Amino acid sequence: MELEQGEIVGGFAHNQVMQLADKVVEAVKSGAIRKFVVMAGCDGRMKSRDYYADFARALPEDTVILTAGCAKYRYNKLPLGDIQGIPRVLDAGQCNDSYSLAVIALKLKEVFQLNDINELPIVYNIAWYEQKAVIVLLALLSLGVKHIHLGPTLPAFLSPNVAKVLVERFGIGGITSPDEDLKRFGIL
Asked: What pTM was estimated for this model as a whole?
């Protein structure tokens, strides 16, 4: 029995995005793309995880979602359209392909001649669910990425002392509601 039908545009690992680099850079410079939102990570069936689909629906039309992992199944079928031919959801693949998202961010940092990866117009709103996402989080932290938001709950294994270090040193935070977070993250 067929559960659903339709098409999904995928295949935006770093090699493909680099082929679109001139288009992406021009869209950023012209203001057509104002923000990128990394919405990668894991997913589950709980109703609280609908947050990510609601957040994607509420994003302004000048934002692009960079994704990898199962969380994308909450929003990759939404009719979000494109920006000057660039799909608003650039799907790098599974969670192990988060490497491509880091390569894209580092290339954007280089192209825009920035000193710090945190100067990029990128917001990190990561869906936390499974332990293997720890390596993705550690990779982002090792690159110096700050102000990563995790949700809908923080990892259960975090001790109060480790959580305190992550909050104080890296600005790790949780999520609230899509409307409030869009304002908090500087998207609206």
From this structure: 0.84
The one-character DSSP state at 106 is H
Amino acid at 164: K
> In the CATH scheme, what architecture does the domain 14-184 have?
3-Layer(aba) Sandwich (3.40)
Q: Among residues 147, 122, 165, 153, which one has the least CA distance to residue 51?
A: 153
Q: Using one digit for the tens of pLDDT, what is the confidence trace for 52-73?
A: 889 999 999 999 998 888 777 7
Judging by beta carbons within 10 Å of its beta carbon (0-12, 13-18, 19+), is residue 151 exposed, middle or buried? Answer: buried
**Pairing, β 122-127 against β 148-151:** parallel
User: CB atoms < 10 A from the CB of 46, how many?
Assistant: 10
The C-alpha atoms of residue 74 and residue 80 are separated, in whole angstroms, by 13
Distance between CA atoms of residues 125 and 54, nearest Å: 13
Range scoring the smallest mean pLDDT among 32-36, 66-70, 106-110, 174-178? 66-70
DSSP letter at 41 equals: B
